[in-house]
Amino acid sequence: METLEQLRERLAARFPAAQTVLATDPGAAAEHSLLLDSTHARDIARFLRDDPALRLDYCSNATGVDWPEKEITDVVKTSVPDPAGGPAKIVETKSVRVQPGYLEAVYHLYSIALKHGPVVIRLRTANRTDAVTLPSLTPVWRSCDFQEREIFDLFGIVFAGHPDLRRILMWDEFKDHPMRKDYVEPPDYEWEPTAHDEILEKAKAFRASPAATPLDEPSVASAKEGIK
Amino acid sequence: MSTPAYTPFPAAGNISDTDREELRRNGILLTSLEELYNWGRSNSIWPLQFGLACCAIEMIAAATARFDIARFGAEIFRPSPRQADLMIVSGTVTKKMAPLVVRLWNQMPEPKYCIAMGACAISGGPFKQGYNVLKGIDRFLPVDIYIPGCPPRPEALLNGLIQLQTQIKAEHITGPRAARHLRADAPSEYPIPEYGAHDLTPTQNPTLWSAPVPPRYPPVAPPPASAPSA
Question: How many CB atoms lie within 10 A of CB B19?
């Protein structure tokens, strides 16, 4: 199969209006992917499915990724020549920029007919709050149906053109999207013997709240009883 | 007038168990209506046929020939709650499923019993910290027997069933110690939680469940009074 870079060039020639970016994975897995332009995504998806050299006829996995707003500190090093004639000084200038958050839908495509894959494609929303609509790829790959519903349920991406977009795991009255990074769990903490710091922190916070029933902190109790 | 001592196996009249055994050896069988009634009930417990997760596989295994739950008279798994005596909550109860489980319980006729099978049904198990799993079915239903395990082996389920039989055999028909289903003040139906915007509403039935107090909890001193006097 051709490389993703070759595929990207072919897509750029075939869909000149669409912006297709090769998103490289610097990690060891090197799972590079193609970031598609959401306005042309369905046409490109159809091309990927029907192109005789690719025939990516099977979407094995569709999932979501939440990228919250992130502060990025850029460090620019400039060398300033010393007017006295000494060695040049290196001055670091730091600038902080805020990278806006967005949601992504990731699709893993395989070809059953030609036995190759996966080709990973991504779609990206404009932000995480109001512009969260992406084109549904269920009309292209039927197997995306439940998985796009799951992304809709857990991440809150709205798939335009999906034949039956309802929550699939949580109930219809549920308002949150539990897989988002900023999801707040309902305050139903209950004491349990545990060594997990995160849960012990929760226990401390809950104990301070006025609604708390008497809760134990094992370390305190152990210390009082002289148990190490 | 003092109440008579509680006997788990009430004999007829004032005859002690040893005397009764002596009579039985001589061919005289003495019993009471209560005992006969409980004996019959405890040996034909019909469970409701429903499974929620992997514990249900062990429940099915307990029903097959190798373990054979029929030895204890509980082999007739009923597909309708109207015909069932026992609800085996076998597996993870998600918050989406919880109202349906409570509804099934409400549809079962009295006398009825509930077994929480496995870590998930008891407390949420490995999914306790999850957003979508109920932290134990005892938040909404009166559980009679808890069977720990993840999942419990079929033998454990059979042991739980024998425990339940022991409990049923010790139930009284009348008096202050009458069984739950014979007391007018004990509810038969429990409120069904509703799907809320963030969680079930209510998150538990306060008449059945309150947050546990850990066993090693040091008592909290009451807030100091405004005017302590010597």
Answer: 12
Minimum Cα–Cα distance from A193: chain B residue: B214
- Cross-chain CB nearest to B203 (options A176, A183, A188): A188
Query: Looking at chain A, which residue has its C-alpha nearest residue B99?
Result: A171
CA pseudo-torsion sign B23, B25, B26, B27: positive
pLDDT of A207: 62
Q: Delineate the domains of chain A, giving CATH numbers in brackets.
A: 4-66+102-174 (3.30.460.80), 185-228 (no CATH)
Measure A169 CA to nearest chain B CA, in Å. Answer: 8
ipTM of the predicted assembly exceeds 0.95? no
Residues of chain B with C-beta less than 8 angstroms from the C-beta of A222: 216
pLDDT in tens, A28-86: 888 899 999 999 999 999 999 999 999 999 999 999 999 999 888 888 888 888 887 77
Residues in B closer than 8 angstroms to A169, CB to CB, are 96, 132
pTM of the model: 0.80
pLDDT at residue A218, as a whole number: 46
State the helix-helix crossing angle for B33-42 and B154-169, rounded to 10 degrees: 160
Bigger pLDDT: A227 or A184?
A184
Q: Angle between the B55-63 and B154-169 helix axes, to the nearest 10 degrees? A: 70
Q: Cβ neighbours of residue A65 under 8 Å, at least 6 residues apart?
A: A103, A104, A105, A106, A155
Beta-carbon count within 10 A of A109 CB = 25
